[in-house]
Amino acid sequence: MAGRGPAPAGSRSRERDNKETVKLVADGKKRGMALPPLMKVGRDGKSVRTKWHPRTIAWWNHWRESPQALRMMTGPDWDFLLDTALMHHEMWSAGKWELAAEVRLRVQKFGATPEDRSRLRVEIGVGLPSDTPGTHQAASGNVTSIDDRRSRLTGA
Fold it and tell me: Is 124 helix (H, G, I), strand (E, B) or coil?
């Protein structure tokens, strides 16, 4: 008589089958550097200091304050994002919308959208006390979680 085969392994043999995610929670700190001065070459061939587009400034600060910034640990991470900021600036200030596709490809590497984060196996937390393991309390009255009930009954 045929059986069901061996018991499943504790972990998958292929990396793509492991569903472990990393949870990132924003701590309110700004990481990375502020946008450096923006220099453009004028018509006379000299460098001229100009201002960043307001949308790019807001975009950059959102990245600096995001939970994803916790993972951007090295200078090259921020350099890559700065290059992307230059494209973002040109897109908004000069209407070069053909840069939008490249900007999108670049920010997906950092987990810009929920779909990107799912592919990267990154979960964004909201930093509530109930998000920490072992502190799952029900919101109503004297009802507690099943884990608390079990620990009281077993004395563990």
Answer: strand
